[in-house]
Each structure stands twice: as structure tokens, then as C-alpha cells.
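Hi there, hope your week has been kind to you so far. Do you reckon you could talk me through the fold, stretch by stretch? I've dropped the whole record in just underneath, so have a look:
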Amino acid sequence: MKKEKKEVYKEARYGRKALLVFSSVLFAISIGIIAFGISLLVHGCKSDVSSQIALNISFGVMLMLLGLASGSISLVMLITSLGMIKNNQGNVKDGNRAIGTINISKCEKCGTELVEGAKFCSKCGQAVEGTIQCECGELNNIDAKFCSKCGKELKQ
């Protein structure tokens, strides 16, 4: 299961990098198309032949509009890709997935989604991983050395 989790995050990071590269390349190509459109427009204005003037100006304007449209799209893609799929700082258990930066925990026994901070599964009653039960019945954090209710030493 840990291998699957690592693969999911590896694929997500790869997808983010691929989108960043693609949108950056598309943005650079858009700038080149705009520059070529401007050069056609300027060349058309300087031409002495009337058919060349109309042709160069019309193609120049079309290329500039195409470059502006693709540049706008690539800029939105670039900004979006920078904000998506952030590294998860939390401890995601095997089999759980992170949506954005929010962890969704599931019961290891029945797979039911757990409410944040729950100590037991609401469907099957299974104790949530990350807790340890004292002899008195109190659930404590897995890091605790002593029970928060009775004060007995917890056996790990």
C-alpha cells in the first residue's frame, strides 16, 4: 500500500511538472507568433505593392490575435498549475488520498470516511489508527506515554 501511495504522489508531481512545462512552452510560442505577426504588419506597411500590403497586414493581424489568444490560455494554465497539487504535509495513511491539501481518512476495517478528530469509526466502531487504548478504556494519542484519564503508563 505504501508503494501505491508513493506512486500516486509521484504521478501527481509529474503531472504538475508536465503542465508547467507545456504551458511555459506554449506561452513562449505565443510570444513568437505575436512577434512574427507584428513583423508582418510592419513589413506590409512598408511595402510598395498594394497586394502585399493587404496580405501582410491581414496575416499580421490574424497572427497577433492567434498569439494573444493562445498566450492568454497558456498564462491561465501556467497560473493554475502553480497553485495545484501541493505537497501534503500531513501523515496520510495507506489507502487514503489527499484532495488538494485536505486529508481524507478512512477506516482500515470497513473503509468508511472518518470525521476529523474521530477516535472510533462511526460505522463499525474500530479504533482509529494513531490512538492507543488504556486499560481504563480511554483512547490516547499514539505518542502519549501516560493515560490522560487515569495517569497509568501506556504500553506501546
